[in-house]
Amino acid sequence: MVTKTKTKTKFDRSFACPWWCCSRGLWSTSGSPLPSAVCLSRSTSRVIKQNLWVSLGVVAMLIPATILGLGIGTAVLFHEGSTLVVMINALRLLAYRAPTTASAASAASAARVG
Questions:
Q1: CB contact set of 5 (below 8 Å; sequence gap of 6+)
Q2: pLDDT for the residue numbered 110
């Protein structure tokens, strides 16, 4: 008697997915999560750019200020303060909520047009 063994594919429910394609991930059956992933990646990119500008701006101000007489302790305090601002700005991404599929699809199509 010949028995067929079932081969597991990435679309099979018994297949052990990595963490990024679980029930809310790429292989979700309730609709495509890709538009929300695109929105999250765009938000992340914006936050990274904001954080880079803040950190580089503070360093660009502190180097000449320290050379011109600002104490090193005060400069360190300003630098650490800017680090906290950058960290709090990045924590905003934890509050990200995926938009509905219809609004994400319209935002993605508007981004392609414009």
A1: none
A2: 61
